[in-house]
Structure to design on (399 residues):
């Protein structure tokens, strides 16, 4: 052993520092580290756990998306808040958009004018606007009205929806026409239009009416 | 024979599949779903409506109930406030201070923003008084001026549904086609 011949601080001579034999060579450590690093670079990162988490999140999102029977993604529809605890359910949907369209441009909230529309199951049915007799943005042209309360185009469309539901039920032998209709209306919708919508739904054969709201309890 | 043995490293296990593209796809799907999902807790309010004809109608009343005298409680949402009527007569409220002709039973009052709004609390208290006298009655008819907005109609229905301490008042709301002039 080389170290046996080397005297280390035994007091016989002045201290001269660590002998060269015991010191690491200057390049030795760097080489070791470099070697270790090369090995890690080639191994792929362990993604299995992350993959599991991401898949669970994905399944949860798909499930919650599929079970939500009502979707209000129209930026021109602002729903009122209510203390009602009734939950959403599957039904035909009549949407009334509002006169203001909200949006985001460059991270800032924007508002622009919008022509209110009546939409049934994502299909626009009728545009509304001020008339000579009614200055409201939600006024329906008189030519589109029957007996002042029945909106003709809406009634036709709802009858189509009803027939489609009945046809689907006859093919699949499940469910059937349940007569339920959900009215998703902007909070600025006037009462006169609400009654016209309800009466038109009744004329088309729908008998259970529900208004969509944003629940206040959550 | 001994030379045909596989080296140790090859036999150790099957190579793991490259999960990075799958991860990318999953992240893209999550981003799409999140952008499509509206995180608004939606609910419903059931109402009954007058029908000019047709309609299945879910309000099948029993013959026994028909024999009982009905309250026919009606809330009028007017431009000036609320008026109440029951069994065909308009309620006049406090006998000491009856409302003047043309004045609402529950007039509008300024809200937190300083805007004139309906007095939902006073309506709630009034309906609670009526409920004490007619504990079995659940129905209320609602009618409003044509320009009264949906938001205020919904808040009125909330006031009619339950009291401040959670007691059920008149949860069955029927809309009336007869619009106050």
């Amino acid at each position: 052993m080389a170290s046996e011949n080397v005297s280390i601080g035994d007091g016989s001579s002045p201290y001269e520092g660590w002998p060269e034999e015991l010191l690491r060579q200057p390049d030795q450590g760097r080489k070791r580290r470099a070697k270790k690093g090369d090995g890690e670079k080639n191994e792929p990162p362990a993604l299995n756990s992350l993959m599991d988490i991401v898949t669970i999140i994905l399944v949860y999102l798909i499930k919650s998306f599929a079970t939500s029977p009502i979707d209000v993604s129209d930026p021109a529809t602002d729903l009122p808040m209510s203390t009602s605890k009734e939950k959403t359910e599957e039904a035909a949907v009549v949407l009334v958009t509002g006169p203001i369209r909200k949006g985001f441009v460059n991270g800032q909230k924007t508002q622009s004018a919008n022509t209110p529309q009546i939409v049934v199951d994502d299909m626009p049915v009728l545009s509304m606007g001020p008339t000579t007799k009614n200055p409201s943005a939600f006024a329906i042209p008189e030519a589109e009205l029957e007996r002042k309360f029945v909106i003709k185009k809406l009634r036709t469309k709802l009858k189509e929806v009803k027939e489609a539901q009945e046809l689907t039920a006859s093919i699949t032998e499940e469910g059937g026409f349940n007569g339920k209709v959900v009215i998703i209306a902007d909070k600025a919708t006037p009462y006169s239009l609400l009654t016209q919508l309800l009466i038109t739904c009744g004329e088309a054969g729908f008998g259970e009416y529900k208004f969509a709201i944003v629940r206040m309890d959550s | 024979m001994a030379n045909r043995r596989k080296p140790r490293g090859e036999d150790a296990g099957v190579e793991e599949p490259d999960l990075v593209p799958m991860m990318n796809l999953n992240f893209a799907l999550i981003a799409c779903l999140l952008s499509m999902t509206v995180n608004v807790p939606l609910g419903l309010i059931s109402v009954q409506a007058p029908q000019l004809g047709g309609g299945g109608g879910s309000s099948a009343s029993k013959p026994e109930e028909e024999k009982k005298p009905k309250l026919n409680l009606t809330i009028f949402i007017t431009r000036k406030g609320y008026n109440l009527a029951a069994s065909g007569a308009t309620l006049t409220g406090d006998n000491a201070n009856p409302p003047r002709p043309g004045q609402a039973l529950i007039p509008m009052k300024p809200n937190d923003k300083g805007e004139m709004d309906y007095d939902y609390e006073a309506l709630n208290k009034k309906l609670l008084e009526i409920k004490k006298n007619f504990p079995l009655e659940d129905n209320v008819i609602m009618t409003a001026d044509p320009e009264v907005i949906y938001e205020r109609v919904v808040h009125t229905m909330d006031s009619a549904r339950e009291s401040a301490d959670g007691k059920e008042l008149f949860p069955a709301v029927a809309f009336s086609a007869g619009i106050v002039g």
Chain A touches chain B through 64 residues (CB under 8 Å).
